[in-house]
Amino acid sequence: MMKKCKRKPLLIAFLHFSTVLLLLYGCNSNATHESDFMSPNIARGGYTQQGDMAIAAPPFNEEGIFPCSDCHAEEVTNPQRRKLVDMHEDISEMFDHDSENRWCLDCHNADDRDYLRLASGKLLSFKESQKLCGQCHGDKYRDWKVGVHGKRTGDWNGKKQYLLCVHCHNPHSPHFKPIKPMPPPVRQKDIY
Amino acid sequence: MQKKQKNSSRRDFLKKIPVVAAGTVAMASCSPEEWDDFLQQSFRTLSKEEKDAIIKNLEKKYTEKYGKPFTVSAEPATEGILFGYALDLSRCVGCRRCVYACVDENNQSRDPQVHWIQVLQMDKIKGIDLAHADVHYNPETVPEEGHFYMPVACQQCRNPQCTTVCPTKATYQDEDGIVVVDYDWCIGCRYCMAACPYGARHFNWGEPSIPEEDVNPATHYLGNRPRPKGVVEKCTFCIQRVRKGKYPACVEICPTGSRKFGNLLDPNSEIRYILENKRVLVFKEELNTQPKFYYFFGV
């Protein structure tokens, strides 16, 4: 069971981080292409400790989206590979993650929808979804663990906070989405 | 002959009167604090007591000016640390969030505008080609097709030319590798700007202006404390943060995680992992400046 980290330095780092995020969000509230990882929602779930890594909680930011079992517990699972039409059309529309060969239940666990499922059959909580990504993207996963791929914040010489893969890459359409740039510097000729 | 000499010396004496008078007036119009500032020694040569007194005065001055409590740290370098930085050229999207996070953290002047980070947009087809690089790109969204982005700030050279040319030695490389500026010792000659091949040094042509509500009161003497007009400033790897163990502000803000920072002397640091496992380049290698700022390809 993951527990919320209550250590003081981490808390301070976390508060600082969330302040920076809030400031950034405030500066760009009218930006049209902000990605989820820049919104304050990222900090709402706090961080969970996995080994010596403090990893941000999954970026669920819509009411009622989780736990999935709220809806799926009542449903009978249809394991037939198909395009979803009555529900989750938004995901069907955007799905671009080897869509030719894969569909929902290749990653989501059929019997208990609150879990993800590795190819080996092992179940994973959404809090450790990086392991699911890592089973195909092994090189990126290795780089992420040592802090080379992806974003880390905190102390360069101590406690660091990690983001999950899904904070920057939508798992259903993982290509990094373009964002609005901040203003260019003033041209010399415009100064006087 | 002798008479002529005598005449000329009388004339010299008369000539000097207004100069001495003006000097006396100028001296009289200075407060004792201004005199202390004027006669202050280079930061490196000050004793701890002198530093403490100067810092106390500075904190008082800034607190009064900006209406919030200021801290000015004089935290020295720690032995066994040599700071290094790496930037992933394959991931940077040119969003310029680092530029403005740096301005906020390091109290750069908003008007006239000072940016320590310049993000260069380059054509993929041309590679790193400064003649065709653009810092004023402003499309709806980035990255733009066919381009890559190269943010440039101080490269924290091991062999810095800016410090070599400084006539007052106001700028120097500290033990942890950060090239710093003692703003009270800088005379504003801008030799360092001419010597720096990266355009990383910036001069305060006007009185720097920072809105009171935006000023960052957590400062370092050699870093982000408010600067006067007429001095040169530059990136210090956020000296006020990194000497306390924090990542620089640009690392914390980067939405793509392109910016990496750590101790080059620690074999387990992420920066060492990058140097040992990724394709790395330094900017303008041929100048032998030996930067501690590395560009790499993460993919």
Polypeptide structure, described:
The complex is a heterodimer of chains A (192) and B (299). Chain A has helices at residues 8-27, 41-44, 69-72, 89-94, 130-134, 138-145, 165-168, and strands spanning 47-50, 53-56, 115-117, 123-125, 152-154, 160-162. With 192 residues, chain A is of the alpha+beta class. Chain A has one domain (8-181). Chain A has a four-stranded mixed β-sheet with strand order 1-2-6-5, with helices on one face. A two-stranded antiparallel ribbon of chain A has the order 3-4. Chain A starts with 7 loop residues before the first helix and ends in a 24-residue tail after the last helix. The model of chain A is unreliable at 1-6 and 20-37 (pLDDT under 50). In chain B, a hairpin with a 5-residue loop joins strand 5 (171-173) and strand 6 (179-181). Chain B is globular, with a radius of gyration of 23 Å. The mean pLDDT of chain B is 93. Chain B has one domain (83-297): Alpha-Beta Plaits. Chain B has 299 residues and is α+β, with helices and mostly antiparallel strands. Chain B has helices at residues 2-29, 32-39, 48-66, 97-106, 161-165, 191-195, 239-242, 249-253, 270-277, and strands at 71-73, 83-88, 118-123, 147-152, 171-173, 179-181, 202-203, 218-220, 232-233, 259-263, 279-281, 293-297. Chain B contains nine helices and twelve strands. A four-stranded mixed β-sheet of chain B has the order 10-2-12-11. A two-stranded parallel ribbon of chain B has the order 1-8. In chain B, strands 3-4 form a two-stranded antiparallel ribbon. Chain B starts with a helix and ends with a strand. Chain A binds chain B through residues 13, 17, 20, 23-24, 27, 33, 35, 37-38, 143, 146-158, 163, 168, 176, 178-187, 191, and chain B through 93-97, 99-101, 104, 112-113, 115, 118, 135-143, 242, 245-247, 249, 251-257, 260-263, 266, 269-270, 273-274, 277-278, 298.
Summed up, what is this model?
The complex is a heterodimer of chains A (192) and B (299). By secondary structure, chain A is α+β, with helices and mostly antiparallel strands.
